Amino acid sequence: MFPNFLVLAGHPPDQSGVGAILLSQILKVLPKQNITLVTFMRKADNSFSTGETLNITPRFEYVYKPIPGFLGNLISLISHTFIFTPYLNSQVKKIVNIGRRRSCEAVLVVLEYPSLIFIASTVANRLNLPLYCFVMDDPQGIAKTFGYDPLRLNLLMGAFEKAIKNCYRLAVAGESMQSFYHKKYGKESVIFRQGYSYHESKTISENTSQISSAQKSDDFFIIGFTGTLSALDSFEQLLLALDRRNWKIADRRVIVRFAGPSLRLASKSPRCVEYYGWLPIGEMVNLMRECTFLYLPQPFTTNKQEVTELSFPNKLCSYVSTGVPIALHTPSNGSLISFFSRFPCGPISNEFIADNLLDLMEATANNNSLYTEYQKNCQEAFRVELNSEKLQERAENFFRKSVFPGQITINL
Questions:
Q1: CATH fold of 208-386, please?
Q2: Do the beta carbons of residue 198 and residue 179 sit within 8 Å?
Q3: pLDDT less than 50: residues of the chain
Q4: By the 8 A CB rule, do 156 and 143 touch?
Q5: What are the start and end residues of each CATH 3.40.50.2000 domain in the chain?
């Protein structure tokens, strides 16, 4: 039913972060004996594979550029050619050997690190196996994270384009990325994104009663946020706008409830922020159900343009499972605009200064019928699109031998 997969990823599938959780949900559809796992960060345990595993310690992943300017770029290119590339070639030999020993029939590469992007096509070609690719983040954003200069960026983009054009099947993070890669590379793709189980969640009626009581609270107006804060610029504007309102909305005291791995604050005025750290998804969902709104920001800064235009924040998948209206704070070119057009889950503000967003939250909180409509739309998005059952269905079709690329539908 499924090929034996050689899986190359940065982090092993586990519960340590969004990408790792998503990969674990995807690989659950494969029998353990069909997975040979190669990781580039931490060693994987045996919970996802009964076969051989290999952990590679990444080296030279970040650009070596001792001086700025053209000369620094030239040194970086030389180090890439004579240090980084030979190192990658040595790792490719190890990976190919394990793929042959395990009689792998296909290669799945999560294109989340420069090393993985550079070796994806090479590994598949050496093994003469079909290449499956999964793109969570656009490579230009990855290049910025690792300090890539224009010369090395060209090399990285060339390797990425080769992998995408040569891959047998392609999975991406969301609708905007799906549409963009289809236009640019002529590739059809399937969408993978993290999901909370719809069938295991509380009933919609229970969710609605919980949220309604939170909305009508006479004491607090709770704004929730979960996950990694990749849109710090937008979040800071939210806090500044709350400062200007003295942390009151609809005559209620505002609490910002934050559940994520890290948060740094600096303020010259009183603020009310609850910090919970990283929580298991079940605990996080229950905590966020008590909120009046959930806050979903995307970056406005130009140096994160790829994130804004192409990424799909996986926190939306857990947000909709709460049934709480979602306040979207995004530029007009944000990747979530089209999704909110399909499922209007809450108010949208395209203004960087967040006063308008708070005005929209207040107006919604004071309009019971509108608030209830947003609740129902969140529940519909959860039922139809953003759940683990939908992810499992797509992953099974993606991996199954009997389903060919032309049969994988594309949603533009």
A1: Rossmann fold (3.40.50)
A2: no
A3: 203-205, 207-211, 213-214, 216, 403-412
A4: yes
A5: 5-195+390-399, 208-386
